[in-house]
Amino acid sequence: MDYFKKILRFAKPYAKYGYLNIFFNILYALFSALSFAALIPMLNVLFEKDKPVTELPVFTGIGNSMDYIEGYLGYHVTQYSGGDKMKGLVLVIGLILVLFLLKNLFNYLAMYFITFLRNGVLKDIRNQMYEKITQLPISYYSEKRKGDVIARITSDVLEIQHSFLSILELIVREPLTILFTILIMFGISGKLTLFVFIFIPLAGGIISWIGKSLKKQSDDVQSEQGQFLSIVEETLGGLRVVKAFNAESKFFKTFSSSTKRFFDFSNKLLNRQNLASPSGEFLGILVIGVLLWFGGKMVIVDKTLDASQFIAYMGLAYNILTPAKSISKASYGVKKGNAAAERVLEILETINPISEIENAIDKSDFDSEIELKNISFKYEDDYVLKNFNLKVPKGHAVALVGQSGSGKSTIANLATRFYDVNDGTIEIDGINIKDMTKKSLRDLMGLVTQDSILFNDTVKKNIGLGKENASEEEIIEAAKIANAHEFISELPEGYDTNIGDSGNKLSGGQKQRLSIARAVLKNPPIMILDEATSALDTESERLVQDALEKMMLNRTSIVIAHRLSTIQNANTIVVLQKGVIVEQGSHEELLAKNGTYRKLVEMQSLG
Question: From which domain of life does this come (predicted)?
């Protein structure tokens, strides 16, 4: 129930709907019991057992409540019918119809109000999960499969709605229906009602035994669903590679293995769950059968119970079966919901290691320099950077070069706080970036990566991502600086053209120029370029390089470069090897040293 309590906190904003649901459920439970009790006067009329009641009965206590209700109804039937049995029958039937109408009206109103609570909780959990997913560091997703996260925000949250939140409907309605019904049953025959209670613990024990393994089986189903959603996500992301290597059958085999496991887990879960209803119903009918024998004996042999009371009593006894079955199903719902809530809360309660200190500085400008002081960092076991130092003065372009794995991109990840350093500090104008708000830090920076990350939206929306409410003129100006305006103008709908999933309707060079336009529009004082031209052909590279140079003008830049021809104009070039600076200086100075940088230049020239 711990998970249930944690999920219930999401219901607080919708408490008024919960109270209205409880109110109408109380009325539903009351009228559900009364609608069956009202059968007694009708049956008395049919069996000609009713005697004219000429005086209103007096209520003397709960013990005679059934006699009082019977006498009260009998008095009004007598008054209305004036001895005409058909008139009396019509009155009683009308009463029963009104009671059943009110019962169903209150049932509808109870469900109407709980709908707002259930869907509101569903919306808020999903919103909180999405917010948490975007807040968690990039390192979190190197361990988690994306498909599993998608499964948690979709099917697991739905499972919470179907299982946990459906219990809210049952908490009041079903127990009260049983309570009111049993009270009326006691009013008719205490001896017969005590007989019912002998079988309730027996039924409860059997139902509990069936439900014990449901949480484990439900957990297996939900985990496997995350697994095959991950396979779908990876397949769609790498469809070109899958097709190019004729790997369709291999991926299908992996996917079908996952769905086969899902099939087996689901069968076990549903077959165990499906056992609840027939077993519950059989136990209920067993109770009814025993009651028929015991109550029939009271009517026929002992003459201690009227036939009309007995028939109404049987109706009331059957009226307990439906809520009892619902409660037994709800207990399975808690088991299933526990597994789903555990997976959802695992994300919601994950502590974000990239956190902000209390009263973090909201830095809005950049005045002097970025300094990396004695920093060390490792992704897992081995250090990528060790005791690394670097200064980037304002207005300077500092280029980082070196072989793959030398730690170039890591510096970009650390400067933007996608990861935190293990040791040392990164400072902007002498302020540790950990003391700044993440929003203000990232507002100071623009990022252009090797992989142009674009979204399935229009050109205008993609460029305007970093600046809310940017005007069309600003967007066009940014596109012109990025050498993108010309090709955008030739698109079918210009800036309103949808560029497809990940911008796949555009070429590599066009995508990269859109990424640059996005960074230009944001207009940050610090620019980080992470191998922004390495994936381009010569013509595209020339256009992109020209765009980058225009963007970097009078701006502080950290340029991570693979192609050395693109960084010759940098103020300082830093050569890295295994996370250590081996050389630094201008292009000419480094060539004159005749060291590592010169070798890299010569290797690329030969290439």
Answer: Bacteria
Please, what is the end-to-end C-alpha distance for the chain in angstroms? 65
Domain 369-606 has CATH 3.30.450.40: no
Residues 6+ apart with CB under 8 A from 329: 276, 277, 280
Q: What pLDDT score does 153 carry?
A: 85
Host H or E run for residue 385: strand 383-393
Residue range(s) of every CATH 1.20.1560.10 domain in the chain = 2-348
Say how far apart CA 303 and CA 309 lie, in whole Å. Answer: 12
The per-residue pLDDT for 49 is 53
The pLDDT value given to residue 109: 93
Quick check: helix, strand or coil at residue 499? coil
Concatenate the DSSP letters of all residues of 436-454 into one string.
Answer: B-HHHHHHTEEEEESS---
Nearest to 233 by CA among 153, 163, 287: 153
The region that residue 320 occupies, defined by phi over 0 for left and psi between -120 and 50 for alpha, beta otherwise, is alpha
Which pLDDT does position 481 carry in this prediction? 83
Between the alpha carbon of residue 203 and those of residues 207, 249, 315, the distances in Å are: 6, 50, 20
Q: What CATH homologous superfamily does 2-348 map to?
A: ABC transporter type 1, transmembrane domain (1.20.1560.10)
Q: Average of pLDDT values for 160-176?
A: 75
Residues 67-74, mean pLDDT to the nearest whole number: 62
The mean predicted confidence, pLDDT, of the chain is: 79
Rounded Cα gap, residues 92 and 308, in angstroms: 14
**Which regions of the chain carry the CATH code 3.40.50.300?**
369-606
Q: Is the dihedral of CA 118, 119, 123, 126 positive or negative?
A: positive
More confident position, 299 or 321: 299
Q: Please state, in angstroms and rounded to a whole number, the distance separating the CA atoms of residues 189 and 540.
A: 91
Per-residue pLDDT at 164: 65
Beta strands in 166-234 (DSSP E): none
pTM score: 0.72
Q: Which residues contact 108 (CB under 8 A, 6 or more apart)?
A: none
Q: Are 412 and 576 in contact (CB under 8 A)?
A: no
Q: What letter would DSSP give residue 518? A: H
Res. 602: pLDDT tops 60: yes
H helices of 422-567, where?
Answer: 438-443, 459-463, 472-481, 485-489, 508-522, 538-552
Is residue 531 scored above 80 in pLDDT? Answer: no
Longest dimension (CA), the chain: 124
